[in-house]
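Task 17 of the worksheet. Students: predict the tertiary structure of the chain below and write it out as C-alpha cells. Keep your answer in the requested format; marks are given for formatting as well as content.
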Amino acid sequence: MVAGYANAAGVTWLDDAAEDADTVVCIASAGKWIVAACVAVLVRQGDLDPSLPVRTLLPELPDWAAPIRLHHLIHHTSGLPDRAVMDRGFAGEVSEWTNETVLGLLSTMPEPQAEPGTEFSYCTTGYVCLTELVERAGGRPIAEVAQQHLFTPLGMASTQFWKGPGLHPPTVTAHPPWHPGVPAPQTGDGVWSTARDMLRWAEAMQTGALGPRLTATLRQPGKLRDNTMIPYAWGASILPGGETPAYAHPGSWPGCQTYVITAPATGTAAVVIAYTDDSQKAETLGRKLAGVDQDPGSDPSPGRSS
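Model answer:
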C-alpha cells in the first residue's frame, strides 16, 4: 500500500485563480524521470541499448563525443560541457531555446568537460540528447511515446510535453510574470503536469504499476568507469535509506519549485509544487511528507531550469 498526500493553497499568476492539486505547471527537471522512462521503454522494445554510442544517432555532435554512450547520458557521467552550453543559451545568444538549439551549441564546443565515465556532473544537455535519441530511434515524438506507455496507463491526463509555439500549454494558469521568454527544450524541462498527476507517477515508481522490468531499470544506479557507484538512477536521485533507498527529483523553474519523492521503505510518496525560488523549502517539505530523514540540499540533482 502506498500512502500519498495532496493539498494545495495559494493564488496563480495569470488569472488570480486559486491553486489546487490540478493546477498545471512546468515541473522542470523533475521531468527527467519521465524522459528516462521513455528511454527505458525503447530499451525494452529493442530500439535503444544502454551501450549505444550516441553519435550513431546524433552525428552532429563533435568528434570528441565519440566515446559517449547512452548510459553516460542517463547517469550524468557523459562529460558534456553542460554549464558552457547553458550559459550561452541564457545569455541571450539564441532566439529559440529548443532541442535543436542545444545540439547546435554542443556542436560548437571545442572539448568535453571530462572524459565519459570519469565523473558525475549533473547535465541537462545530456537529457536533451536523450530526448532526441528517443525520437530518432522510435521514429516519433517523445510526447507520443510518453502518452502511450506512461501517461495513459497511469491516468496522468493533465501531463504533457510542450514544445511551443506558445510559452506554455493553453490550460496553464500558473505562469509567473518573470517566465523565460521561450518554451523549455523538450527534455524533462519541457514537461508540464500537476501535483495530482505527479503523485500518480511517484506511486507507480514504488508499486511497479508500469511493470517490474521497467521499474527495476529505473532504479538501477549509475557507476563510474572505476565501478564507483553514484547516487543517481534513471532520471532520479537515490537517497540513502538502508536496504531500500528513496528516489526523488527536484525541478526548478522561475517562481516555481517541484519536488517528487517515493520512499518504498515507508510506503509513502509525496509531491510538492511551491511558488517560490527557494528549492530547499520544497525539498525539505517533500522529504518530511515521505518520511525520509536527510539534510536538504544533499540531493545530487540540483534541478535547475534549462
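Marker's comment: Strands lie at 3-5, 25-26, 160-161, 191-193, 237-239, 246-253, 256-263, 268-274. DSSP finds nine helices and eight strands in the chain.
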